[in-house]
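=== Structure Prediction Worksheet ===
Name of assembly: unnamed complex
Input type: mixed (protein and possibly other molecules)
Chain count: two
Listed entries:
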Amino acid sequence: MERLPSRRKRKGEPPSSETSDALPPSASHPAPAAEPLHGVRPFINLCGDYRFLRAGYWALVDAELNGVEPSPAPVQAVTAQNAAACLLVARHNGIETVEWKVARRPEDVEPPCLLVPVAGLTEKAYEVKSARSRIHQWRSATQNGTRAALAVKLNGELRSMRMVVGVAAHDDYHLAWDVWRTFGIPLCEIWFLETPAIAAKPANPLDPADPADRADSAVQDSDEVPPKRLFLGMDPLPLHELSERELRLYEEVSQRPMSR
Amino acid sequence: MQAYVRQAPDHGHTAEVIDVADFHRLPEFDAAFLRLDTAVLGLPFAASRYAWKLGLRVVDDPKSMLTCMNKAHVQGILERAGVPTPETVLLTRAGRETLDAASLFAELGSPIVVKAPSGAFSSAVEKAHDEAELKELVRRFALQSDVILLQRFTPSTFDWRVGVLCGDPLFAARYHIPKGAWRVHDTPEGESRKQWAKIERVPLGKVPDAVMRTALAATQAVGNSLYGVDLKQTEDGRIVVIEVNDNPNIDPGGELPKDSPMFGQILDRIAREGPRA
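=== Predicted Assembly ===
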């Protein structure tokens, strides 16, 4: 399966303008001034790193302290990072999510599943394929039972889509919009499980029991339950990692009024 | 925990202790009172956040949790609200690169108290007596945070702790710092093990006005939840706020007497006036 990339281990530093302690600048959203501002559009933080107590998170706090509405808000940023909070809030907001439970003990891990530390989706997720490996993997994911981890049922293929302020070049653009609306993370990679499409059982033309079925069998053969996309979490992206096409998309979208 | 459950019916409530991971049960309740180490990147925050979304009254609410788990955030709020604190410099990442230890010692005196924003019970709070110590502490704390607090050292033999719930004082105590130490949880000089401060309960009526006023001003600036405010008196007699804690200890036999009827009153207050969305 795709390995979820661990962002904190990515090599290479982003450009210094995105990590300076001044509020991160962006092409279309100037950093707020020190005095409280009223009637000013929100500050959209494009640094892509909102880890609690890191510079990007502090920029959100600083904006709020100065009366400027940041996006994401600090509570949204931490909610997105906390795997359990992320899934609970997503589901409450109408986003269909993966099936999961808190893995309090190795026995709670039922393969095939993904073990996700609550401290962050990309801390390192573990794919558990067999019951034989689950004790060892549970110990790694929970740091010997000292940290919480979620056991996510792997009933589909792990996929992702990149989202730019609510827009994605993906047929499930609703998911992209809902994630933006819920978490306020402007640029991110959204992770989801795609369950396979289920073909409807074709009617048996030789079955005399229900003649009506034979008449409709041509329609039923093409019916199928479309694949579902179950939200798992997201991985914020910094501005400098956008492709040219995504940058142009961001510039186009950011001209429009932001509404959530 | 059982004191709360036992006294809840005295106020017309039913209370039940559930596991923090039992999120699916939260819709059964009208209010949630978290009594465990609040961890922003753990299940307590998830439970608080979900309870908030469900419309429950919840203590600690997620915003208070985030604020109080970040001493730099609290410092920013208190400064803007005009609540007195020790002289503080917030050292950001850029500030670390141009660290001028001499001018910091000139501004804050010596020793300088170095604090990481997140740490409970005096953990991640150290003193620096010279440039080498300051740089080493800054380097170490920078591993966990991009903002570090540098404060003027305020020596005292005890800290005031005032518990405040929904804007009203709940309890007060003096935390007597172990002899030979300078923090409420510390290893005294010449000892090898950490000791806890001795808790001396103080009736609310006997708390100096300045202490109570400052504590209430601090919590008003932060929010409407349950807080434990730590205060000190400086050598020149001023009262300053050292910290505003979410999820303060309220132990039977500690901050409150063992048989205090206040446990039920606390639940009642949360159920009627606790913060909610």
